[in-house]
Amino acid sequence: MNILDPILFHCRLQPEAPAICAPGIDLVTYGRLEQCLNNVAYRGLAVGITPGQVVAISVSQPVVHAAFILGLSRIGVVTASIGTQQLPKGLRFDAVVSDRNEPHPEIKTIRADPSWTMGDGKPPALAHFPRGADLCRVHLTSGTTGEPKGVAVTHDMLLGRIFRYYAAYGSSFARSSRLFCDLALGTALGHQLLIWTLAKGGTFFMRGNNAETMLRAFDAYKVETLVAAPSGLSEFVSDFGRLRCRHSFDLVSAAGSLLSRSLSERARNRLSPNLICDYGSAETSNAAMAYARDIEQIPGAVGCVTPGITIDIVDEAGRSVPAEEEGEVRIRGDYVANGYFADPEASARHFRDGWFYPGDNGCLTPDGMLIIAGRQKAILNVGGDKINPETIEEVICSFEGVTAAAALTVVNTRGIEEVWAAIEANRPIDEGRLRALCEQRFANIFVPKRFVVLDALPTNEGGKLDRSRLAKLLKTN
Fold it and tell me: Is the residue at 301 inside a domain?
């Protein structure tokens, strides 16, 4: 079986049922979804896209983007969703299908437009039918170093990851047929939840044109489950209060990064008492989870190890350490990746002897609770997306008058981690122009929310930036 088989089954079984909805933008039924993905598949073949090719999708409208993913997967194409992020150096796409104006001069660009989804909707003539062992998707991830990498998954691997949701999340999630996902389709979890929802005949909701429209849709469609990163979760908590929304979800899942205690409490009071914390990555999928109420008193706790996953804590020599002793986290499982796509160098660093090393330090309790003590390196992790601080610092230092810079994450008053930048300067700095420069180079989550000018950045005895001292210093500013 491939990932399209159960979706196409529901297209024929319940053609009038809603399949994908971006409130205020578009709603597609299963019958229309089948037509759209068949039309995309037909057009893809017509422009020379062939089974087995790796094709990047850069389509702005979310529902249409989903149709492109499914339509190209229908003909055996390996897809990857891209935005404005840097692409992995070793990953060579055969083409990029795009309706945006961002240039990708190193890749064959095929222009996408609404006509791709139009046509008679008949199934294309296929010389190759995708099978379980075929690759179907490359998830782009910053991995453990902040440098972008690709994680390739097969149809069987993706279906196996989806099946694990039933064991890990319990009956509420299993029964959910209307799910709102605040994560982009370019993320591993966003894509997996799209397939999971459609494969069971449910309705997959994405961001609409504004908060008020989305909140009305939660009530109108009786949306049962919300999945979001902590930053998105905080936004919904604020919107629910501002717009006096009374909707309550059966289940809310916070994924991507650690959830602060204050946000956990506000989300449970406003959105749902059933708030789950999910620890995982594109390399591993869901590796640990717990109800937020059960771990909020345990600093660093991210959840219990999920079925099908093994987590081990090792010392510097790679030897397993006893429970409650801190060391380096490593993970393995049936559906954990065994390397990075087309990147043997990064694979050798982070995948060893059947284990994936995510770059976290932590420990396991005797009953299997995973505690994360911190990152091995100073990678900035905002809502699950990661970046080297040096990447931001280099751009800031290119601004006239800035002589030194340091980027780091700071927990704001709402309990959300955001990027701040400390700078040294030899003249007054126009903060608006500096922020505009950063907005041109980075996704919004990596644009510093505050620029703090200091007389001197703190350094250690070796003359290197002391990030821990800087973090304490910024708390007083």
Answer: no
- Confirm if 288 and 302 have CB atoms less than 8 A apart: yes
- pLDDT at position 86: 60
Cβ neighbours of 463 (radius 10 Å): 7
Cβ-in-10-Å burial (0-12, 13-18, 19+) of 205 comes to buried
- Distance between CA atoms of 259 and 415, rounded to whole angstroms? 8
Token pair 């040294």: residue? 424
- Answer whether 173's CB lies under 8 Å from 19's CB: no
Domain presence at residue 212:
no
Cα angle: 125, vertex 130, 131; to 5 degrees: 140
Q: How many domains does the chain have?
A: 1
Q: Is residue 14 part of a domain?
A: no
> What range defines the domain where residue 415 resides?
388-474
Dihedral of CA 106/351/298/171: which sign?
positive
Chain segment 7-28, per-residue pLDDT in tens = 999 999 999 999 999 999 999 9
Q: 275-281 and 251-255 as β-strands: parallel, antiparallel, unpaired?
A: parallel
User: Domain of 469: which CATH number?
Assistant: 3.30.300.30
Question: Per the confidence metrics, is the pTM higher than 0.90?
Answer: no
Count of beta carbons in the 10 Å neighbourhood of residue 9: 13
Structural domain includes residue 69: no
Residue 106: pLDDT band with limits 50, 70, 90: confident
Q: Which residues contact 73 (CB under 8 A, 6 or more apart)?
A: 2, 3, 4, 79, 130, 136, 137
Given this model, what pLDDT does residue 85 score?
56
